[in-house]
Structures
1.
Amino acid sequence: MADVPEPESDEEEPETDGGVRAYTVRLELVDEPGELLRALEPISANGGNLLSIHHERGNITPRGHIPVEVDLESPPERFDGIVDALRDAGINVIQAGAEHYGEELSVVLVGDLVETDLSETLSRVENEADAVVKDLSLAAPEGTNATASARLRLAIDSGRAEQVFEAIRAIGTDKELTVVEPLLGGEA
Amino acid sequence: MRLAIVGAGDVGRSVADLAGEYGHDVVALADSSGAAVDADGIDVEGALERKAGGEPVGTADPATLFETDYDVLVEATPTTLGDAEPGFTHVERALETDHHVVLANKGPVAERYEELRALEADSAGSIRFEATVGGAIPVLSTIEDCTPQAVTAARGVLNGTANFILTRMAAEGLDYEHVLAEAQDLGVAEADPTFDVDGTDAALKFVILANVLADGGFSLEDATVEGIQSIPGSALELAAEDGRTIRLIGEASRDGVRVGPRLVPENGALAVTGTRNIVQLETKHAGSLHNSGRGAGGPETATAVLSDVGRLPEL
C-alpha cells in the first residue's frame, strides 16, 4: 500500500479502510436477459464495490450492442484482476481506466438559474471547481423566468470537498445564486 | 444562593418563578422601569402579577438592585449587538463587586468575550452562560465535561423558528412566506423574525461556542452568516428526492464560525423537526455526541440558568 498517502491529521482522515480508488469501466453487452447481472458478478466477486451503473438502453453501438458504464471502487492492486475476470467471462470491456473521482456529493443552487445561463454555470462548476456534474435536476415551479432550484450531483476527488465548495460558493456569489452545500464531516 | 435578576422578560420571570424549587432566594427582580428588592426575599408572585398587569415589577429604582445583598446576578435583559449594552455594564458591576454572574443574554458573551473573562479574572465571582446556547439543552456543560480541548467542533441547529419554517416547507411543499405567516400566527415566529431567519440568532450562539472552544477571539462580525429567506419550496423538494433536507446549520470551530442553509440527510440526527434544537459535538477521541431538546422558551431557558447557579462555588 505504498501509494496510499499519509493522512495529514486525524481530523481530515475519513473513516474508511483506505487505499480504495474509483474507476470507470465501459462495457458492451449483448441485448439479452440476464446479461447485465452476468457482467456485474465478476466485479463484486473480485473485490470491487459498485458505485453506479449507467445502462444506456436506447443507445445501441455500431455492433448492435448496448453500452454500459459502470463506476466502481476497489483497491488499486485488485483492479486489473477485475478487468481480467470480466474478459474471462466473455464480457466486452471497451475502456477501463482510473477515475480520479472518489466522492459523490450533491449541492442545490437557487436563483434565476435560466436567466443567469445555467449551462455556463455548469461549465464553470466543472472548470473552476474541478468537479464533474454527473446529474442535474431542475425545479422551476413558477416558470423558467422566476426563481428556480437545481440539484447537482457532483463527482469530486476524495478529500477535495472543501476546495470544490469554496469555488462553487465563489461562482454563486458572482452569479447571485444561493448555494446550499452539503454538511460535511461528523456522524450525521 | 441569593439571586438578583435583571430583566423581567420570559426568562427572567421564569427564573424568579422556579428559583424556590431549586433552593434559591430571589432578593431582587428588576426591569427597565422598576424593581422589587427585599434582602429577605421578594414576593415573587406579587411581582409577576404586577408585570402581567402591565405595571413595573416593583416601585424601587432599578439601580437599587445592585445595592442589595446578593450572591448571583442573573443577567436576562434582551440580547443586544455591538457593545452589548446595558447587559455588559450589569455584568461588569456585579463582577467588580465580587459577585457571581449567570447570563441568559447572549450579547456580552458573543460580542465582548475577552473583556468578560478579564473582568472575571480580577473578581472573586465567576461567570456562567449555559442558557445563552440552546435553551434547556446542556451544551456548554457538556463541553466543560469533555474539556474544551477534546472538542474539535460544534455543529447543529440552534434556531427553532428557522427550523420550524424549513420543516413545514418540506412537509407541506409551501413557500417561505406562507409558512412564516403560519409560524407568526402560532407564536413560533415573532412579529419581526429578522434575527431568526437571517441567521443572526444562531450565529451568536455559534460565536459563543467558538469562544468557548478557542478561549475567545470571536464576535458576530467574524461569522459568515446566511439566512433561509431565499430558500424556495422547490429547493426542499429537490433535496428530498435525494434523501436529504435543508436545515439552517451552524458550525463553530477554532478556525471560525459559519451559519447557513445546508443539505443534511433527511433521517440524520441533525434533521430535527419543528422548533427542536440539536448540537453535535465533534470530539477528538470519541466521535460525535448529540444533545437535543428545547432551545428556547421561558421555563426551558430558566432551567439552564438555575443549573448554572447550582454549579457556582460559595463566595
Note: Confidence is low (pLDDT under 50) at residues 1-17 of chain A.
2.
Amino acid sequence: MAVEIPKEKWTAQVRKVTIGATSEEGGTRAKTLTVGGESALPFLHYEGSFPNKPALAVEIRDRKPDDWSPLLLDALGETAEDPAKWAQAAEAMGADLIYLVLSAATADGNPNTPENVRAVVRKVLDATGLPIAVVGPGQAEIDNELIVPAAEEADGERVLLGVCEEKNYRTIVAAALAHNHLVQSKTPMDVNLSKQLVILINDMGLPLERIMMDPTTGALGYGIEYGYSVMERLRLAALTGDKMTQQPMIVDPGAEAWKVKESKVGEGVPEAWGDWNRRALNWETLTATTLIHSGANIVILRHPENVARVRKVIDDLSSATT
Amino acid sequence: MALTGLEIYKLLPQTNCKDCNYPTCLAFAMKLAAKQADLADCPHVSEEAKTKLAEASAPPIRLLELKGSEGEFQVGNETVLFRHEKTFFNRCGVFLRLQDSLSADELKEKVAEADAYHVDYVGIDLYLDGFAIEAASGDPKTFGAAVAAVAEKTKRPLILLAATPDLAKAGIEALDETRPLLYAADADNWEAMAQVAKEAGLPLTVRAETLDELADLTGKIKEAGVEDLALDPSLSGYLDSLHKLTSLRRLALKENFRPLGYPVITFPGSTESVDAAILAAEQIAKYGGLIVLDEFDPSTLYALLVLRENIYTNPQKPIQVQPGLYEINDPDENSPLMVTTNFSITYFSVANEVEGTGRPAWLLVADAEGMSVLTAWAAGKFDAERIAKDVKTFNVADKVPHHKIIIPGHVAVISGELEEELPDWEIMVGPREAVDIASYLKSMWTT
C-alpha cells in the first residue's frame, strides 16, 4: 500500500534576521549569523525550505557571576574571570553568537558604569570574530544607562541589544537605530503581547529585519509548557501569514534551567532526582531541545558540554536526507 | 470520517420515543455527533446502525490498554497535533528494557530498584509505567523464566520483546491474569504472531521499515483477527523519528487513515550515535506512544517524567492551588509571612523551600488566577491591590501581629504601592527565586 504522506501547504515564512557585520558591512566581525527564513514547521524538510539552522548563543558575563551553580563555575574555570577569555572559550565551544549579559553591580558592589561597559564590550569585540549580543541586567533604568554606551562603543557592528520589554524599550530601540544594531523583543509568554511589542518597536522605525522575538520560556518543570505552546502558536501564525509573528525567535533555556533547584542544588534534594551533574546537564539540554522543536531559532546556553550536545542534535535534525 | 448529526440521525429509529432522555432522535443525534452522548442510551438502535456508528466514531488513534497484575496503562485516543488545540490526553508510556541474558537474581534486583522508583513533582507522584523484557537468548525456556522473574518483582504492565511465536508463547505462559503487549510481527512472521496474539487475546506490535509496509501489515493482521495494535516504524534517529511520527499523527487525525491509527512504540536507546535522553524527550513532545528506555538513570528519568507531565498538562486548566494562608512547620505570631501566587509550580517551589528550612512560616497564596509571579504581575493579577485584598480576605493581620510581609524579589517594584495599600505594614523584598529563600530567611529574619 502506498501511503501518501500528508503535507501542509503554508503560505508564508519566518523573516530572516542577520546579526553582526563584517568589515564590508561596516563592522569588524569575521562572520555574521543569519537565522529564520524557514517556510514550514521545524525540520519538516519535506514541506518547506530551511535556509538557516537554529543557532546557539553562549551566555557570558562582564564579570564572574556570584549566583551561578557551582557546577557551571567549575566547568568554566578561570575563563569566567575575564569576559575576553570567556568569549574565546564560547567560540571554542562552538557558539554562533556571544551573548554578553551586563551586571548591575561591579565585583566590589558599586553600580556598573558606562565606562566599564565600554571597556568590556571593546574587549569582547576584540577577543572574538563572532557576532555578539549585549543585554542589561534586566532592571529598566540600569539597562538603559548601560546599553546606550554599549551601543555607541559597538557602532556599526549590528549587535543584538536587549532586553526590550513592554515597559522599557524606547531607549534601547533608539540606541539600535542610532548605531545600526538589532534588538531582542521580550514579552511574557503571550502571543498577542509578542506581536504588540514587535509592532511598537517597528513603529519607532526599526525595520523588522532587525528584531528578534523572545516569547520567554520556563525551564523544564517550571512552566516550559507555556513557552512551548506560545512558540508553537506564534510559528503557526507566522506560517499562515500573520506578519508581526514572523520574527525569528530567541529563548534562554540556559538562564531558566540553571536557576532552578534541580540544577543549582546538589545536597538535601530527593534521591530520586539522581546524579546532580547529569541531572543539571539534562535540565538545560532538554529544555533547549524541546524549545527547538517548538520553533526556537536561537537558544542561549551556559554549559560547555551542552553546547556540543545540542549542536549535534541540531545538525542531525537539519540534515535533509533521512 | 466522523459522521455529522444528520448522518447519525438517519441511522437512528426516528421514533422520538425519548427513552434516551432526549426530546427527539435528532437532538440525540446531535449530542452523539458532539460526543456528548453515548449510543448505548438508545435501547432501540439496530445492530447494523451500531456497527456503522461504532466504525465512524472510532477514535483516529486506537486506544491501547495494557495490564499488569495490578497496574494499568492506556495510550492512544489522541485528537490533536498541538497541545494548545485541546490537550494531549493519554500520557505516553515510559518503560524500561531488560534482557533475559541477565540471571534471574540480576533481573529481580534491577526490576525491584526501578519498580520502587517514585518521585514527587508538584504533588504528583511520577514513576515508570512498566518493563519490556527482551528474549535476547532466543531460548523460550530462558525467556519464560526471565518473564516470571520480572513479574515476581513488579505488578506493572509488561512488554514481551519476543520475535518468534515460540518465544512469545513462553512469555505469555509465564504470566497470568495480565495483558502484556507482544512485540513484534513483521513481514516474515506476521501470520504466526497474529495467531499467538489472537489465541491469547493480547495486543500485538507491528514492525516495518516503511510506512507503506507498515500499513500493509496492519491491514492483514486486522483481517486475521487482531485489532489491538501498536506500531514500530523502525526509527533511526532524531529526524527520522520526527518525520515518521509526525506523518503517523497527521495521517490518523487529518486523513482518518485507519491502517496507521495506532500508538507508536519507540526505542530511543537503539540508535547508535544518538543521545537517548534527547531522543526520548523529542518523542514525548512529538507523538511517541510507548517509549522504551535502556538505562535506569534517575537523573534522566526524572527529567523525562517531568517533561511528559508538562507536555500532557491540559493547557485550558493551569494547575492551581487554592488561594489562602498556608501554615508551614507550625508557625506562630513571630513567624515570617511570605506571599506568592497560586500557580501550582510556583506554590510548590516556594512551599518546598520554606519547608526545607525547617523554620515555621506563613505563606499567603494570593489568587493570581493560577499564574506564576512574573506572568501574573505582567497581567495585572498579582499587584499591590490583589495582595492587600487577600491579606484582608484571609485575615492575615490577626495571625501575624508583626505586620511584616515578604514579597517575591521579582515584583520588588510593587513595594511602594503595597505600602500605600497596607499602610501599617512593613514590606520586605525577598529573593527572586525560591531556591534562595533559605539563605534569605537566615540573614533577614531573626526572632
Note: Residues 5-57 of chain B form a domain with the 3-methyladenine DNA Glycosylase II; Chain A, domain 3 fold (CATH 1.10.15.40).
